[in-house]
């Protein structure tokens, strides 16, 4: 029997530029890159040099702390650059692709005949392990750990997020195969969170339907309502789109990093889906679709709440299957903007009359902060959009003070920065809450594992 979880707290932000369920053609990417900053908590060690020839699945770098965790090339071709910054920090490893991709073959067998350790070894060797994250700490899973349970979210409820029913419509076999492989890695259960009414129905897993506003689709909400994480426990989490990579490996014996990516936002001329390979250039996605002439446009790899600001010269985020284009807003000059009726403006607190036009009206919102920085106000405004059984304001204050005992008691082990993205959006104090949580998790990790 399917479990249904009804979420009441939250907020759906309806923006203009939702991707139509149409598959479009993307421009060819002239290079692909592995960017260490896309992976939280790793210390990269580069294993290639400029001029080396690689295949899709060849190792480009490893993690110094866990050398068995490999980061592989998404395409075949020539390594043209290993860019470094201050203190020789690795910024990116760039590969110029071949016309036709050659793949490293991996020996695969029927999942039923493989043990959990054999599946784990194959995922590590093929470079798919970085797509498995863990809680606590929201970082790449420890290879030597055994998770209590595994949670997969196939419902992205963030603004303009892609519809996984459409993304996986031709790859249900790959999704099921990936879930079967994950089930061998835990003595517990594999939980899959779906949007209520989703047509996708995986088997041999615990299906959970989520109904309600964002952040209903966050894996943290799924964990909190099914089985919260206690001190000493470890659970693994994955995005459903990344499970497809695992499924393809066991079906074909190669690492196919192609993914359907949603091109969204009010500044995107033709919102829709394109099939690209992970690590492609942003320029290949925006060419002919975003006009930069005379307009200031904010490009975001991911969604508007948790994504990363990028330029056409950057690369699509390792975990992202969405690119958003919205107005920057820095050229806007509103005389007495605070004193106008604000017709057409979006407001959570109903400061403008726009709320009378209905909840489902699509808005064009730019990237301005729209407010001044001030002290955190204990007004329960976070609580109104935070559907987890956690006191967000008190947890944030404990993180700022780095009071480990209070952090543990208030639920630090089961949260990630994305769980506070909506709180950050509605925050009248304009505090960077996600950064506070990320720094707190990193400091806690060092303290507990030193």
List keywords for this structure.
single chain, 450 residues, alpha/beta, 7-stranded mixed β-sheet, 6-stranded mixed β-sheet, 10 helices, 20% strand
Mean pLDDT: 93
Order of helices and strands: EEEEEEEEEHEEEHHEEHEHEEHEEEHHHH
Strand order of the largest sheet: 1-14-13-12-15-10-11
Biggest sheet features: 7 strands, mixed
Structural category is: alpha/beta
What gap, in angstroms, lies between the N and C termini?
44 Å
- How many β-strands, per DSSP? 20
User: Helical region count?
Assistant: 10
The residue fraction in helices comes out at 10-25%
Give me the Rg, rounded.
22 Å
SSE inventory with pairings:
Blueprint: E1 3-6, E2 23-24, E3 32-34, E4 44-46, E5 53-54, E6 59-63, E7 70-72, E8 77-84, E9 90-97, H1 116-126, E10 133-135, E11 139-140, E12 150-153, H2 164-167, H3 172-183, E13 190-195, E14 206-211, H4 219-226, E15 235-239, H5 240-252, E16 258-264, E17 272-277, H6 283-286, E18 297-301, E19 308-310, E20 322-327, H7 392-401, H8 404-409, H9 421-426, H10 433-448
Parallel strand pairs: 1-14, 2-17, 12-13, 12-15, 13-14, 16-20
Antiparallel strand pairs: 3-9, 4-6, 5-8, 6-7, 8-9, 10-11, 10-15, 16-17, 18-19, 18-20
Helix pairs in contact: 3-5
Q: Can you walk me through this structure?
A:
- This protein is an alpha/beta fold.
- 20% of the residues lie in helices and 20% in strands.
- It contains ten helices and 20 strands.
- The protein has helices at residues 116-126, 164-167, 172-183, 219-226, 240-252, 283-286, 392-401, 404-409, 421-426, 433-448; strands spanning 3-6, 23-24, 32-34, 44-46, 53-54, 59-63, 70-72, 77-84, 90-97, 133-135, 139-140, 150-153, 190-195, 206-211, 235-239, 258-264, 272-277, 297-301, 308-310, 322-327.
- The strands form four sheets. Strands 1-14-13-12-15-10-11 form a seven-stranded mixed sheet. The protein has a six-stranded mixed sheet with strand order 2-17-16-20-18-19, with no helix packed on it. The protein has a four-stranded antiparallel sheet with strand order 3-9-8-5, with no helix packed on it.
- Helix 3 packs across helix 5 (240-252).
């Amino acid at each position: 029997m399917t479990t249904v979880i009804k979420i009441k707290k939250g907020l759906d932000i309806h923006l203009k530029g939702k991707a139509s369920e149409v598959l479009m053609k993307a421009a060819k990417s002239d290079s692909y890159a592995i960017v260490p900053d896309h992976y939280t908590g790793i210390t990269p060690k580069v294993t290639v040099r400029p001029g080396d020839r690689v295949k899709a699945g060849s190792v480009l770098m490893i993690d110094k702390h866990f050398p068995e965790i490999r980061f592989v090339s998404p395409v075949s071709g020539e390594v043209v650059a290993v860019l470094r910054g201050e203190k020789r920090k690795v910024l990116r490893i760039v590969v110029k692709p071949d016309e036709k991709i050659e793949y490293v073959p991996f020996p695969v067998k029927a999942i039923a005949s493989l043990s959990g350790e054999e599946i784990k070894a194959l995922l590590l060797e093929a470079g798919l392990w970085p797509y498995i994250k863990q809680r606590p700490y929201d970082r790449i899973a420890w290879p030597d750990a055994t998770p209590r349970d595994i949670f997969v979210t196939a419902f992205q409820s963030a603004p303009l997020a892609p519809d996984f029913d459409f993304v996986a419509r031709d790859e249900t076999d790959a999704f099921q195969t990936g879930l079967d492989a994950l089930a061998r890695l835990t003595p517990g259960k594999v939980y899959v969170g779906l949007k209520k009414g989703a047509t996708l129905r995986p088997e041999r897993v615990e299906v959970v339907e989520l109904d309600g506003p964002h952040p209903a689709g966050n894996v943290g909400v799924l964990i909190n309502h099914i089985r919260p994480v206690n001190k000493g426990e470890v659970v693994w989490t994955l995005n459903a789109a990344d499970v497809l990579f695992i499924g393809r490996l066991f079906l074909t014996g190669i690492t196919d990093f192609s993914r359907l990516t949603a091109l969204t936002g009010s500044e995107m001329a033709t919102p829709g889906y394109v099939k690209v390979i992970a690590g492609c250039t942003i320029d290949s996605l925006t060419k002919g679709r975003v006009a930069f002439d005379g307009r200031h446009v904010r490009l975001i790899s991911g969604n508007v709440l948790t994504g990363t600001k990028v330029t056409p010269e950057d690369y699509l985020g390792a975990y992202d299957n969405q690119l958003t284009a919205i107005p920057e807003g820095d050229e806007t000059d509103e005389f007495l903007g605070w004193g106008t009726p604000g017709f057409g403006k979006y407001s959570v607190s109903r400061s403008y009359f726009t709320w009378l036009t209905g909840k489902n009206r699509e808005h064009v919102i730019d990237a301005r902060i729209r407010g001044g920085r001030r002290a955190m106000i204990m007004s329960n405004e976070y609580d109104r959009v935070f559907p987890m059984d956690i006191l967000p304001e008190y947890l944030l204050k404990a993180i700022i003070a780095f009071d480990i005992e209070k952090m543990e008691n208030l639920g630090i082990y089961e949260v990630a920065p994305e769980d506070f993205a909506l709180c950050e959006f509605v925050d009248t104090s304009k505090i960077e809450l996600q950064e506070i949580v990320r720094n707190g998790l990193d400091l806690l990790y060092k303290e507990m594992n030193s």
